[in-house]
Structure formats: structure tokens, C-alpha cells
Design brief:
This protein is an alpha/beta fold. The chain has one domain: NAD(P)-binding Rossmann-like Domain (Rossmann fold, 3-Layer(aba) Sandwich). The chain is 37% helix and 20% strand. The strands form four sheets. A nine-stranded mixed β-sheet has the order 3-2-1-4-5-6-11-15-14, with helices on both faces. A two-stranded parallel sheet has the order 7-10. Helix 2 crosses helix 9. The longest helix has 21 residues. It is globular.
């Protein structure tokens, strides 16, 4: 591992909050002005949703609507914000695939900016629950986007993933279909549909670093899928800050963006730097290679062969552009709509492959 990679991992470790004694003092927090905006965040209790919320409470906004289907995490978020000014914040327990509830939400609140972070993101789990992935990641996104058109939302920020690039997993395919649909809507809509595509959130729920931390502290072997596996990583704070910058931008040169995450990091290199955080470790844990799990790739891509990256006014935000200025594809949702819970995961994935 070179010095630049080591420093990159250390920065991510310090920003992750997993080791309180090593957290950097995040000074010069940028305050965005959303004074005239009613902001809706889906998946508000998740890693990105809660991160956006905690930065937005330091900003000006008209109203903040925090939506999640998970009762306990939403309650945890409520408790985390109990000493903040929540007079203009609504906490809403709602499933974004529920059309009637979503319609009422739009009618009652008329949001002007939407951050759509709600999604099923766990790759192997979605291989075994393909129907639910389609229902939320595709039709939940479509429903939100269609209501955004109807109720004249100004901006819709869609949180996507590098797994949507050259996807091999159900999760990646469903997110790519979401990207494609929003890009199509942009060609006929006054609503600005913006995709923010990035890699793994370092230290987020379900990510490798908290798992390694538990394995180390319980004296268990460290499990990795492959010695050569690597991923793009970004800290939650940086990702959320850049998402808010995207939302505050007025003139877009693209409808898809990604962030400067540096080079992909090998998981073995993360383990090496992580172990240095433990001063009194008696024994170096065994590393156990368990093999790639269903739907996983050895390495991820941030853009496809048909895309290029362009710089923007922000150093860490890159615009994603198609090499050929072709019109976006209109999606025929009929085969997806005809899916049922009785279909096998293999059958559902074969249908998804027709859209890739």
C-alpha cells in the first residue's frame, strides 16, 4: 500500500465516527440556503438520509419532511434531534411504494426539493429478494418521480450507486433502471431529475468496517470475500455535503454526477490500517477468505464505456456525460409490472437483464 492510499483510508477512518478519539473536528461546515424550499427526504433514517438531515438542520429551509418505513431507526433519528429546533420538521412513517399515502404526502406538503435515498442496497440479500428490490428500487422511484412531475417539484436528487454501472446484481440492475427512467423524464419535464452516483459509504450500517470492528473486538477471524477485492469509498459527511451542493446548483451541465472518491481501495488495505487503531491488540486476527457472495463483483466501475467524466464548478463533483448525445430510452414497464411474489429470483433477474 502506498502512502497516498494509507492517508486516504486514515481520512475515512477519522470521518467515520467509529473511533471517537480519532474523529476530526469538521470545521467550516457550509450552510446552504434553502429558505424558500420544502424539502422531502425518503429513507431519512438511513446513512445518507440521516446525514443529509444533520447537515440541513444547520441550514435555512422552509420545512423538512423526513420519511422512512423503518419505525425504530426513525425513532432513533427523532431522539438524535431532540435538542435541535424541530419546529419545522415532520417525521413521517411511510412506505414510498404506497401510492395513496404518497399522494396524500404530496398534496399536504407540496415539496419543492426531494432527496430520494430510500432503497434496498444490500447486494447478496437482494439476490434472494428480487421481487422486493424491484418493488422499491424501481417502482418506488417511479412513483415518487411521477408525483414529482404532477406536483411540480423543482429538483429531485436520486441517490444511485456504482453498482448500477455494468450491473451484474439485482440491486445494481434496479438502480440502473431508476437512473434510465429519470434521465428519460428530464427530456420532457420542468422538474430537474438529478442522479448522484457514488460508491460505498465508509462506516455506514451494513458496510465492512463496522463488521471488521466487531470481529476484532470479539476476537473472531476477519472475513473477506477475496484478497483482491476493492471498492470506491467516500465518507458520509463528504457525500452528504456534495449532495447538498448539487441541490443548490442552478445551472446543470448534465443530469448525472459522481464524486471524487480517489482510487478504489483494496479491502485488505483497510484491514491493515484499521488494526493500527487498536493500541493493545494481543493477537493479530486471522483473515478468512470466504469467496464472492451472490451478485458481487471483484471491482466496481464509476462510469460505463459509453460515458465520460467532466469537471464542474466544484472540485469534488464530476459530471457524467454520454459520449454520444443520444436520446434517453423510454422504458416499457409492463414486464416489470407483471412480476409477482410467486416468481423465482432467477426468473425475475432474467427479466431485469432485458433492460440492461
Amino acid at each position: 500500500m502506498n502512502k497516498e492510499t494509507a492517508n486516504h483510508i486514515d481520512e475515512l477512518l477519522y470521518d467515520s465516527g467509529l473511533f471517537p478519539s480519532k474523529i476530526k473536528n469538521l470545521k467550516n461546515i457550509v450552510s446552504f440556503d434553502f429558505s424558500d424550499e420544502i424539502i422531502l427526504i425518503t429513507g431519512a433514517a438511513g446513512s445518507i438520509g440521516s446525514g443529509l438531515t444533520k447537515q440541513l438542520i444547520n441550514c435555512k429551509y422552509k420545512k423538512l419532511i423526513l420519511v422512512d418505513v423503518a419505525e425504530s431507526p426513525l425513532y432513533v433519528l427523532i431522539k438524535e434531534l431532540e435538542f435541535e429546533d424541530v419546529n419545522h420538521i415532520d417525521f413521517v412513517l411511510l412506505n414510498v411504494t404506497d401510492e395513496d399515502s404518497l399522494k396524500y404526502l404530496f398534496e399536504a406538503n407540496t415539496p419543492s426539493i426531494i432527496f430520494h435515498t430510500a432503497a434496498y442496497k444490500h447486494v447478496p440479500l437482494m439476490e434472494d429478494n428480487a421481487y422486493e428490490a424491484v418493488k422499491l428500487n424501481i417502482f418506488g422511484t417511479k412513483l415518487l418521480a411521477d408525483f414529482s412531475l404532477k406536483y411540480k417539484v423543482k429538483k429531485f436528487i436520486f441517490i444511485s450507486t456504482d453498482k448500477a454501472v455494468n450491473p451484474v446484481s439485482v440491486m445494481g440492475m434496479t438502480k440502473q433502471i431508476g437512473e434510465t427512467y429519470l434521465s428519460f423524464l428530464n427530456e420532457k419535464s420542468e422538474t430537474e431529475f438529478i442522479t448522484a452516483r457514488f460508491g460505498n459509504i465508509f462506516g455506514s450500517n451494513g458496510s465492512v468496517v463496522p463488521l471488521f470492528k466487531k470481529q476484532i473486538e470479539f476476537g473472531h477471524p476477519l472475513t473477506i470475500t477475496n484478497n483482491d477485492i476493492s471498492r470506491y469509498f467516500i465518507s458520509k459527511y463528504k457525500a452528504c455535503n456534495l449532495i447538498l451542493k448539487l441541490a443548490s446548483t442552478r445551472d446543470y451541465q448534465s443530469d448525472s454526477f459522481t464524486f471524487n472518491m480517489g482510487e478504489p481501495i483494496k479491502i485488505l488495505d483497510i484491514i491493515e490500517r484499521l488494526l493500527l487503531c487498536y493500541d493493545n491488540l494481543e493477537n493479530i486476527p486471522e483473515i478468512k477468505v470466504i469467496g464472492l457472495r451472490p451478485g458481487e463483483k471483484l471491482n466496481e466501475d464509476i462510469i460505463s464505456a459509453d460515458e465520460i467524466l467532466l469537471s464542474t464548478e466544484y472540485e469534488d463533483i464530476l459530471a457524467i456525460k454520454q459520449k454520444n448525445d443520444s436520446k434517453s430510452i423510454k422504458i416499457d414497464f409492463t414486464p416489470l409490472s407483471n412480476m409477482t411474489p410467486y416468481m423465482s429470483n432467477k426468473e425475475i433477474k432474467s427479466i431485469l437483464l432485458n433492460y440492461i
